Amino acid sequence: MGTRTREGWFHHFDDRFWLKADDMPPEQARFIRRALRLRKGQRVLDVPCGAGRTSLALAKLGIEVTGVELRSKFTNRAKRRFRKEGLPGTFLVGDMRELDFEGEFHAVVNWFGSFGYFSEAENLDVVRRFARALRPGGRVLIDQPNRENVLRHFRHVHRSTLRQLGRRCSGMLTTRNRWNPKLERIEGTWTLELDGETFRHPMTMRLYTPGQFKALFKRAGLEVEAFYGSREGAPHSRSSRATVVVGRKHD
Question: Whose C-alpha in 42, 60, 101, 169 is 20 to 30 A from the C-alpha of 130?
């Protein structure tokens, strides 16, 4: 992934890999609001927003949400969910590498391991676009697996049932991964066995250390305020399963 491409691996990944349970645990939504110091009525950009899982949880807390997602079927589902709940929300189809908002939001949320898919230059550009979308003093939150913990407990092969990925799915998922130390990326193949058919999908993801996140955010005009070690706001440590980083745009 050294050059900019429109058709990355994520374009072709089976939709069933992306959709999570519709309801976000309320403690995660409360953590996001607390970490970003959000107040009712403030504006948040959720990208990528999927089918509105995070967006809906934040909207129920009184946050005004705009979601951006690559797949129109997901944004359409998010719109239906918001209409059913009687909540306002805006959902747009787009690539996070092409965000063109400027000074519109109090915060940007990139949740559930949705960062690091692109080249080094593109990842930096994405964070810069996040920062550009913020009002002065606004905050960016990015959630990734904790790189140190992943490498300490690296599993080259893992098998799981798709009931873990979506209630309407039944089948077997096998992931085969390797760590590329030169590129600092997980590279792998996900194999889905479903209804007598087999689907194989390559994937790759750049994982950042806390120090690398600080440098990345600084280059984008953001100052890191905090690291957390879980999606509920636990302190960050070497053994944490997640690295959740929050950065603030200068006034």
Answer: 60
Domain that residue 227 falls in:
9-148+207-249
Q: Are 65 and 85 in contact (CB under 8 A)?
A: no
Angle at 25 between CA 23 and CA 27, to 5 degrees: 150
Check whether residue 61 and residue 104 sit in a common domain. Answer: yes
Per-residue pLDDT tens digits for 193-250: 877 888 888 889 999 999 999 999 999 999 999 999 999 999 999 999 999 999 999 9
DSSP assignment of 133-149 equals: HEEEEEEEEEEEE-HHH
Structure tokens at 7: 């058709």
Q: Which distant-in-sequence residues (6+ apart) come within 8 Å of 157 by Cβ?
A: 174, 175, 176, 177
Chain segment 87-96, per-residue pLDDT in tens: 999 999 999 9
